[in-house]
Amino acid sequence: MTDLIVTNNSILDTKSNIDIFICSLGYEKRSISVAQKIYERSTKKLAIKFNDRQVHSFESNKKWFQENNFLIVDSSSLYDYIDYLDLLKNVTDEFSKKTVNIMIDISSMSRPMIANVCFAIRNVNLDCNIDFVYTSAKFIKPESELFPVTSSAPVIPQLSGWSIEPDEPVTAIIGLGYEYDYAIGAIEQLEPNDIWCFFPNGIDKKFDSSVRTVNKQLLDVLPSSRIIDYSLTEPMDLYIKLNSLTSGLIDTSRIIYIPFGPKIFSLICTIASIQREPAVAVWRISGEQCGEPYDHSSIDSIVCLNIRVNSKNGIN
Q1: Which listed site, 100, 116, 130, 153, has its alpha carbon 20 to 30 Å from 124?
Q2: Domain 3-137+295-310 belongs to what architecture?
Q3: Which of 133, 135, 132, 108 has its CA nearest to residue 121?
């Protein structure tokens, strides 16, 4: 067991050396946007390759990673973190210093991939200083068509949640995003007793407006006291808000996080769930494989959340 502590520090800000840089190799242009800025500071560079939907910018991204000495790793099973754990152990063994600096770009990762990487880090017996970084996609108008739900399950088995009081009422904490009416679909499936929603405020006002439009049915009936705004550029503030809400509800209900929307919300849900393991679940309700994949470009700014991993203590 390790101790995951969210901090205000950042490897990115100090411009210190990065021992290990991890990102994903996917079809979006933004798969390489962070890597292009920091790869020269990185000793070891890993790109986790998606084995499906290898379209759009996938081949050009792959070529760039190969030309810049990235180790391209197969993502053979998004629901099995053992491969990532073995990989991290092998890589971190090469560093003899007490604390390893790691940077992880989650911008183009899937939610299961984010969860698997977090679990792998949590189980590496090493002290780490980790920057999770994220760059938002440039605005693209969301699809208006509602695709059927194709997956409804814990994001990975380790985050399925468990309670010593199984009869306690269920509270759903939902991150809102582009997924058209999926939040309503999640509520209909889980039938929670209480609902809280986190509404993302982006850099582009068109994004905020679109999120409001695709979630209109839910927002029209949910009391304003149950809607919490957060800024995509302030991940520490988001962590504090989610952590505070969870602490206030966990003694009287079974909590399920449903992280639609930006990946930064999914990351913070994963961290908060691991810190309370196994009490809080993280669910993935999706129909994205039916939709058209977008070749998202990134905006210029990079958002960072720093975590200290202490191998000597239990999770706080």
Answers
A1: 153
A2: 3-Layer(aba) Sandwich (3.40)
A3: 132
User: Same CATH topology for 3-137+295-310 and 151-290?
Assistant: yes
pLDDT value for 316: 36
Question: Rounded to whole angstroms, how far apart are CA atoms 181 and 216?
Answer: 8
**Ramachandran class of 170: left when φ > 0, alpha when ψ lies in -120 to 50, beta otherwise:** beta
> Has residue 314 got a pLDDT over 80?
no
- Whole-angstrom distance, CA of residue 116 vs CA of residue 282: 12
pLDDT digits (tens, 9 = 90+) for 225-270: 999 999 999 999 999 999 999 999 999 999 999 999 999 999 999 9
Its pTM stands at 0.92
The amino acid that residue 81 corresponds to is Y
Instruction: Please tell me the predicted confidence (pLDDT) of residue 232.
Output: 92
Is the pLDDT score of 195 beyond 70? yes
Topology of the domain comprising 151-290? Rossmann fold (3.40.50)
Domain ranges of the chain: 3-137+295-310, 151-290
